[in-house]
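Provenance

Sequences were taken from public entries as deposited. Structures were produced by running a predictor on each sequence independently, with no templates supplied. The record for Inositol polyphosphate-related phosphatase domain-containing protein from Cyanoderma ruficeps is shown for reference.
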Amino acid sequence: MIAIGLQEVNSKINKRLKDALFTDQWSELFMDVLSPFHFILVSTVRMQGVILLVFAKYYHLPFLQDIQTDCTRTGLGGYWGNKGGVSVRLSIFGHMVCFLNCHLPAHLEKAEQRKEDFATILHMQQFEGPVANGILDHDLVFWFGDLNFRIESLDICFVKYAIDSNVLSQLWEKDQLNIAKSTWPVLRGFQEGPLNFPPTFKFDVGTNKYDSSAKKRKPAWTDRILWKIKPPSKGLGTGGHRPSQGVLSVSQLCYCSHMEYTVSDHKPVAAIFAVQVSTVQGCWELVRYKMAAGFHRSSWDWIGLYRVGAWGLLGLEGVGSTAQHCGVPSELLPHQRTW
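Predicted structure for Inositol polyphosphate-related phosphatase domain-containing protein:
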């Protein structure tokens, strides 16, 4: 799966009207790029200049359920969507997962405001269903975006010296988000890989040079990707439903920035995760179906099951010798069995 979070996308009136009348241009762009690799757009949500898109390989689609989106404005006291958070939540192989893309307040002195806005987003976003109503109720949360945390205390000369000398560890302990993870209860349990790449803000647009304007903003790791695994719960959850099936584990394989992009004053950040999903063995789904009114029965009617990738089974229904396989690629059909 691929989740893409964007911030400060052009949200002028003419752009928003075009996106409202036609397919969102960002969705079209990423679909054009990813569709040759068999990715399908699962869901997208936009709040002015903040966009979240979630893609998945086509063979995962039967196992993605309960897809919902939400957004929370925090700009101008909650009335403007230039700041805030957008989310996509869904069940992935029986585990509730939430992707949260945020754009939090800027400037060094606004750390407390960032904490308050993040707490507001967590409080305001509520989903329907018997399980995982709030963001932190999910089995796995990916939190990312322009979180705008800065480097405290150290002056700009020392920060640039540490970057040029590749001694980034000297900056980590003064990073506001690293400090907050050990002091803010709302961030308890969130994990992040080591910041082994240079601060991603602020650059002169079109270059790899840090801010040379009169303001000379101090470099900072404003663009971050974190995750949190919910501790396993015993017994049944709300409404008698089991919150998830089996064991869930996450390993971060890569965490990096991309200096080659110069169209923004930020450098984009990417992470690759391996998510291990273990489902309960011997657990079957009950499938019910009924004949359509006026359907003419035949001894050639059949229902088949075939394997989807290496994950499980998907039902097929056919009439006579023609399979109605809902667009499933033909290379999967040799796995079918007819009863």
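The chain has two domains: 2-278, 285-339.
Helices lie at 13-21, 25-34, 111-124, 156-164, 169-172, 176-183.
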